[in-house]
Amino acid sequence: MTEFVNDANFKELVMDTSIENRNDEGPMTLENFTKLMVQFYDLGWMRGSGGAMGCISGNELMISPSALQKERIEKQDVFVYDISQKTEVQRPANKRIAVSSCSVLFSLIMKETGQFSFGLHG
């Protein structure tokens, strides 16, 4: 897979500052992102290494990795991108771990529907 930062939809993704945070618990954090993935696993919505998740929080786009056990995912396993700078901010230390193949779909959905989009694919 080519570098996600070169995806046309990611390049066109802009922050929608006209929408206030709708999450009563505050902005999505890496900790909450990984907790959700574990909860989705516990509910049977994501099994093993299957399924993917992506969300925007502030100026960051978080996307789950491909081929990692979702019940064991940790903050350092998540791919994080800066939307304004169009750069990769964080990636897993193991270079063999790739961003979810759903990342291109997530960026298209988020570009088309706005800042607080949330993608889940199982």
Largest beta-sheet characterization = 5 strands, antiparallel
- Give helix and strand order, one letter per element, not per position: HHEEEEHE
* Shape designation: globular
Number of strands: 5
The N- to C-terminal Cα distance equals 20 Å
Low-confidence stretches: 116-122
Strand order of the largest sheet: 4-3-2-1-5
β-strand percent reads 15-25%
Which range best describes the helical content: under 10%, 10-25%, 25-40%, 40-55%, 55-70% or over 70%? 10-25%
Radius of gyration: 13 Å
Q: What number is the mean pLDDT?
A: 79
Structural class: alpha+beta
Helix tally? 3
Could you give a short description of this structure?
With 122 residues, the protein is of the alpha+beta class. The chain has three helices and five strands, in the order ααββββαβ. Belongs to the aldolase class II family. Adducin subfamily.
